[in-house]
Amino acid sequence: MEKHIVLLPGDGIGPEVTKAAKNVLQAIADRYHHSFTFESHDIGGAAIDHHETPLPEDTVKAAKKADAIFLGAVGGPKWDQLPGHMRPEKGLLGIRKQLGLFANLRPVKAFQQLLHASPLKQEVVAASDLLIVRELTGGLYFGEPRERRNNGKTVVDTLAYERSEIERIVDQAFQSAQVRRKHVTSVDKANVLESSRLWREVVEEKKHQYPDVTVEHMLVDAAAMKLVTNPAYFDVIVTENMFGDILSDEASVLTGSLGMLPSASLNERGVGLYEPVHGSAPDIAGQDKANPLASILSVAMMLKHSFGMEEEAEQLEAAVQEVLDEGYHTADIDLVGGTVVSGSELARRVVDQI
Amino acid sequence: MEKHIVLLPGDGIGPEVTKAAKNVLQAIADRYHHSFTFESHDIGGAAIDHHETPLPEDTVKAAKKADAIFLGAVGGPKWDQLPGHMRPEKGLLGIRKQLGLFANLRPVKAFQQLLHASPLKQEVVAASDLLIVRELTGGLYFGEPRERRNNGKTVVDTLAYERSEIERIVDQAFQSAQVRRKHVTSVDKANVLESSRLWREVVEEKKHQYPDVTVEHMLVDAAAMKLVTNPAYFDVIVTENMFGDILSDEASVLTGSLGMLPSASLNERGVGLYEPVHGSAPDIAGQDKANPLASILSVAMMLKHSFGMEEEAEQLEAAVQEVLDEGYHTADIDLVGGTVVSGSELARRVVDQI
Ligand SMILES: CC(C)[C@H](C(=O)O)[C@@H](O)C(=O)O
Ligand SMILES: CC(C)[C@H](C(=O)O)[C@@H](O)C(=O)O
Fold first, then answer.
1. Residues A264, A248 share a domain
2. Does residue A33 sit in the same domain as residue A154?
3. How is chain A split among helix, strand and coil, in percent rounded to 5?
4. What's the pLDDT score for residue B11?
5. Which of B230, B254, B278 is the last residue of a domain?
6. Number of domains in chain B
7. Which of A86, A123, B9, B155 is an S-S bond match for A198, by CB 3.0 to 4.6 Å?
8. How far is the CA of A245 from the centre of ligand 1 (A)?
9. Structural domain of residue B181, as residue ranges?
């Protein structure tokens, strides 16, 4: 197959992990006789530096034509004092909206080798394998009005949803559950929010289309508790944008492998933006220390979700597991009896497995 | 001193733990020569059953005249299918608003005897001692409009704040920090929400009035992570209503002692509503199994915050610690080498210590 991939390296360690992602994609293409082409564009702080905007028109144009997008990371202290519209994160929010990337998928899985680094007790976290399906282009993030009033004496933000926006993310969650353990936990705050009550109604309607999947409703405060006390309870969690932001970050630290977690953000055509969950880590940027595995696992999600390449994706995930099994890792990770290598060497070892 | 206390036993185990709270208050009055008078009123499901509303006028009237209010718990499956305005929680939301209980204080402290029940590793959680100061009468909980539009095709909720509402909760947080370890973490989502940007401005202004307190800003997603990875990092966390709901429940399970956690909700006159953090636990209601210690510690908060009785509060906290040290506990708690007793007996043992 021929696929065109837009790379958005971004800031900090973004360029390093993007290089790892590209090398791995190239290796997959070689082994499976695909043809992947690449082009790179600026986003975030890098784009502010070069184009005085966190999201240049060129970047958006290229992204809209791509089969998939890989993003490294955005942000850093260098741009922290700039006014709101010139902040690196605006690039990320902008591209989500402009490409209609409504479905953010964040799997959290325990790697047995890394469990000892978890803040949770081994027996609490060991069996964890969950997927958070977060609505990504609605809710408090984009609702209008969002403004100060009365000379700055009052302020409002708006949590707004169209019914159709809720329907498509709920469909996504049910479909994700169908290829997993077939259980959906829909998280809301229906005892307080009108939007949550509509959310619940949509879930109750939709469930009849997925009779093979069981579904339950859980309040967001209860979900925040249960993620800590019993993360293995969950299969698929679906929730609105802000709740998803909070819960997915909470979930990301449970298994002790934040440096390993991938993500995908999909639109209705299946085009996706893939990025590691970790940030731009400016403190270690440029030192070839960054862990490339979250990016490589994000590439596996790209192969699966945007290219329909199931076999290639599984092969890549197996390669990562193999390298971990051999004890190789970057310095962010503490692996008993393991060998610390540079980020580029770790990526090369994954490539060698392919 | 003479004090008049309104008791709102509510539902499930609410009446049992309220009785424990009352007995302890009576014991404090006897020992320190105070005169406490009591009156009981319905709220929540009990009020729905007796008055067809979760918050009868009588209850509000009495609460407004009280020096302090004790609430047991509200809710249960019996009332789960009723329409929104007839849900037990509406009683709780209503009384918060009508009494102007804007400041919810939720301390989370590790009890060494109970740490083994924590989902976190002992070394991660042992030193935890934090206070969440949650804004309780603004934000998404009460903002207007909150409604469906276009024949139910769209829905909005509104996150609204007055600057003065932010100022008073931020003042409360700084003042709480002054009698603790003098550090405030203000939690917001300033990279997305306009209300968070105003929140940050207010904190930046206010901090000059409290030069003895250090303050930092943290994004809500980062705070949700750090609560799990390093809860001992925090002293006072201050945040808006919905973030506070999520983070305080997340925090409540960290130390393995959810059955032990008290809370206070204060208004501008220092009148407060005190309640255990745990719910109404309908499954064990009426069996004298409920752990009264969260309620008893809520009484200690009442003595301190509404009555200015520091010594009495400390005496009561010491009594709870003493009973735990002797190994007595209810069945919800697992204490190695301890003795399981009924809820009423555990409360009696605390009373005996006073
Ligand atoms: C950078 C920020 C705006 C963003 C969000 O809140 O969505 C980030 O936290 C994320 O989860 O991708
Ligand atoms: C019952 C519910 C409305 C309430 C809230 O969300 O405030 C509860 O979760 C709490 O934290 O006291």
1. no
2. no
3. 45, 25, 30
4. 97
5. B254
6. 2
7. B155
8. 7
9. 119-254
